[in-house]
Amino acid sequence: MASVTFDHATRVYPGSETPAVDALNLEVADGEFLVLVGPSGCGKSTSLRMLAGLEDVNSGRILIGDRDVTDVQPKDRDIAMVFQNYALYPHMSVADNMGFALKIAGTPKAEIRQRVEEAAKILDLSQYLDRKPKALSGGQRQRVAMGRAIVRSPQVFLMDEPLSNLDAKLRVQTRTQIASLQRRLGVTTVYVTHDQTEALTMGDRIAVLKDGLLQQVGTPREMYDTPKNIFVAGFIGSPAMNLGQFKVADGKANLAETHIPLTREVLDSLTAEDNNEITLGFRPESLDTTTEGDVGAFPVTVDLVEELGSDAFVYGQLANKEAAQAITSGAGESQMIVRVDPRRPPLKGDTVWVKIREGEQHHFSPATGLRLPS
Amino acid sequence: MPAALQITAASPDPALLDLPWHIPLEDWPEDLLAALPRGISRHVVRFVRLSGRVIAIKEIGESVAYREYALLRDLDRLDVPSVVPVGVITGRRAPDGEPLDSVLITKHLRFSLPYRALFSRHLAPDMATRLIDALAVLLVRLHLTGFYWGDVSLSNTLFRRDAGEFSAYLVDAETGDMHPQLTRGQREYDLEIARVNIIGELMDLEAGGLLRDVDDTVLVGEMLVQRYNELWAELTEAEEFSSADRWRVSARIQRLNQLGYDVGELQMTTDIDGTTVQIQPKVVDAGHHHRRLMRLTGLDVQENQARRLLNDMDTYRVATDQLGEDEELVAHEWLSEIFEPAIAAIPRNLRRKLEPAEAFHEILEHRWYLAEKAGHDVSTQEAVASYVSSVLPNRPDEEAILGLDTATLRAISDTDTEIGVQR
Fold it and tell me: Among A173, A227, A256, B172, who pairs with B156 as Cys (CB 3.0-4.6 Å)?
């Protein structure tokens, strides 16, 4: 087992002006489950493929443990790409299906058996080892395929969107399985996905990329609670964070009839480039319903109520039509999302007054996109 | 809910609409299905007769289906041997409203053979070597165009006879990726995946008692790596020699042509005093013979078949004393005097046995045996007559493998249906 280090690792595709991955610095600790996440074209898969040895590193280095593998061929890196291929061989026993790569490598029989048995125990497949794949359920077959990677005991597991081909239900099941299996094995794992929910639920830490640049890396909680910039704020969390463009005057953030007091520290950190504006972020669950006269309250017209049983979300707009477009969220332009009491949801067309809960708003500089101290 | 069904296809066949998309592929009625064997698949695959041809239908996720469809179209456009995509169907629903997986539809490759069928039929003593050679050629071709396969295996390949050898076709591009140019890491990793998969597939046949004439499965897998590396080097490596040996420039081009490749560009550099020359070929396209035959005769056949036919045509040119004649004119004459009469002499009921070009290749082989036995030359007409009466009737139909002996069919279907493979 080993750590993984990206040291100013850069990949520029031939013929391209801008790097697909730009001076990536990232350390994955021994045994850690790190998720690379971001929209398509952000460089997450390229980063993984650089680690796998499938993409050249144009500058910088990649280390596995203390070993510089920048110019080492993929098969000599002691890594395993999981889920590339999970077709099972029908005539071979489950044990042979798991161990055949070791047999090819010339590993002694007794050792193969021992490693297969160990892997089978972790995968709950012990009693099936001598059966044919035909006798297994779909889930068990998938575990046999994982067993193939496990018996090789690689230093690092690499997974590139392994769940993208599964239906929604199986995806959630397999997600949990992979995460718990990784923790039992304790093998350093780098996992790529475009789905932030997958990232939040699976990773010990998450690295968010955009346009080839690392935006932020941290635990799911850190990413959710203290996003470093507007992009991470909007990307992490489902439903997404509401982001609003406010005018700064009289020590307050102002938008139409809404006036939200700002702290001295926030006001001091704004610069001339921000042009007396500020971006406020607030999650749907950071809003409380209140009444019209309350300080900082603003009216939202309800377009749609999504009832999920344990939760209910209002999708709406600021009642003031001109100001409405200043607020956006993952639900679309000039939309706002509010979590409301599922036992007393408003109706479509209602106007609800909401207010950001004290201390739960995020401040960003409109000029740089960066988080401001608060 | 048929209204929600969405068909994406370059030239949609209205008959597609008549298929029971509201039923999971696994449960499709027997009478629709064409019984064709297939490799090991992760997905449910069914072969269906449609408007006089056979199509392959694979159930996969929507985004993956569209991706693979686009990739296969790209490969088709680049003239890489691969299955031809027909379309993608999404928005399938069961009558109870339950959504069903999207499907990718491809044309069934006529006269193609999956490796499992080939191995269990005991066709030639060095079957494994021939298949590996064909796969190495395909992999080199894919890599030259910038295609990273990601899951090279015998199961993901179909084989077609090609003048006694085989040519390989890519069937499954699900894990593939198109790049402007592959890195060495990508090529080597693809090759490593291929090696492990092939050995695994052969070990599986061995475990099932279906493998003949192969003693060491690991060695066969390693052979692929060796063949691939040899071919790659011949096609791409720079060569250096003294400027007195300039004949080596045309020799290299000829060697590449013989291998079936056209040279798009040859970079030639000399050192300052001009004593050594370095050449670096840039191979553009495989299919040198294929294209030459196509230009001369309009026949669309495979590379080795084309080479065989061209050889016969060249011999004809010499034999009829037409060396000074225009190549096109001789080709036309050869086509109408030799090739077409030979093919026309094959009775209609035997035409499903072999592709015409392959049959012609076998006739030429047969002529050689007859001549050797007789101790003198035998005309092509005589050879055709003898071939049609004594050889061809004993061959199985290969247009679409339906005539597999039943024992083989059972061996394949018994073990495979559970893993989503159709008989």
Answer: B172
Instruction: Examine the domain organization and report whether A190 and A317 are in the same domain.
Output: no
H or E element in which residue A371 lies: none
Rounded Cα distance, B321 and A77, in Å? 62
Looking at the domain assignment, is residue A369 inside a domain? no
Beta-carbon separation of A14 and B221 below 8 A: no
Which residue is listed with tokens 């001091």? Answer: A268
In this predicted structure, the answer to whether residue A223 has a pLDDT above a threshold of 90 is yes
In this predicted model, what pLDDT tens digit does every residue of A35-91 receive, in sequence order?
Answer: 999 999 999 999 999 999 999 999 999 999 999 999 999 989 999 987 645 678 989
Q: Which of A233, A255, A281 is the last residue of a domain?
A: A233
- CB contacts, 8 Å: B205 with chain A: 91
Q: How many other C-beta atoms are found inside a 10 Å radius of the C-beta of residue B266?
A: 15
Residue A344: both structure tokens together:
């007393």
Is the per-residue pLDDT at B313 higher than 50? yes
Based on C-alpha coordinates, what's the Rg of chain B?
Answer: 24
- Residues of B in Cβ contact (< 8 Å) with A96: 203, 207
User: Between chains, do B207 and A104 touch, taking CB under 8 Å as contact?
Assistant: no
Q: Which domain holds residue A262?
A: 240-364
- A99 lies in the same domain as A135: yes
d(CA B295, CA B283): 20
CA of B41: which chain A residue's CA is closest? A87
> For chain A, what is the domain count?
2
For chain B, the residues whose C-beta falls within 8 A of a C-beta of chain A are 40-42, 60-61, 63-64, 101, 148, 150-151, 153, 155, 174-175, 180-181, 183-186, 188-189, 192-193, 195-197, 199-201, 203-205, 207-208, 210, 218, 221, 415-416, 418-419
CATH number, residue A337: 2.40.50.140
- Write out chain B residues lying below 8 Å of A73, CB-based: 184-185, 188-189
pLDDT tens profile A308-331: 888 999 999 998 888 888 888 866
Interhelix angle A109-122/A138-151, rounded to 10 degrees, is 130
Query: Which pLDDT tens digit goes with each residue over A119-167?
Result: 999 999 999 999 998 888 877 887 888 898 899 899 999 998 888 777 7
**Residues of chain B contacting residue A53, judged by C-beta atoms under 8 Å apart:** 185, 189
CATH number at residue B200: 1.10.510.10
Residue A174: inside a domain? yes
Q: Would you say B265 and B246 are in contact if contact means Cβ atoms under 8 Å apart? A: no
